Amino acid sequence: MTSLRRFTAEPHIHAKLLVAALLISNGIRKDAEAVFYLVDLQKTVKILGSRVKRLFPDEDSSVGFLKKAFAGEKLTGVIVKRGASDLTIGTTVGPGGRRRCMPNPPFTYVVVFEPFDIDLECDAGLGKLPPHHQVVIINIETDRLLYHRR
Questions:
Q1: Could you tell me the residue range of the domain that residue 130 belongs to?
Q2: Count of structural domains, the chain
Q3: Which of 81, 83, 118, 138 has minimal CB crowding within 10 Å?
């Protein structure tokens, strides 16, 4: 959860979050999505790793990408909807909550920049880390769950 006001004040934090959520060393995570809910505009911006184009790892271009997406510009792999759609699919995990867990995918990891009434089902225990670090750790743990099980 964030806001256009918060993005304007801290665009590079949001860019780092986007890059951490969708990029890997050799490309784009096809199995991940970044969803930004702008509470002040009541608008959801969803970036699909499986379809996004022209997303680069440097912060300045990622800030520009988000500016376009938040403005509603038509971009490949970006879906913009009114309201809080696509926020809670399956288990909802956040940096704070009732109990520590790492559920099996698919789940939604929620980073909260602005207050929003959402009930987290469990806690990943990452609340003291910067948001983009939280997402990197969640991706690493998810990869371990998915690809290192035997």
A1: 4-147
A2: 1
A3: 83
Asked if residues 120 and 97 have their Cβ atoms less than 8 Å apart, the reply is yes
Residue 6 has pLDDT above 80, yes or no: yes
Q: What is the CA radius of gyration of the chain?
A: 15
The structure tokens listed for 62 are: 């990622």
Arithmetic mean of pLDDT, 129-147: 89
Output the domain CATH number for residue 60.
Answer: 3.40.1280.10
What's the pLDDT score for residue 91?
80
pTM here is: 0.86
From the list 43, 21, 40, the residue with the least C-alpha distance to 140 is 21
Task: Count CB-CB contacts under 10 A for residue 2.
Answer: 23
d(CA 21, CA 4): 19
Instruction: Name, in order, each residue with C-beta under 8 angstroms of 150's C-beta and a sequence gap of 6 or more.
Output: none
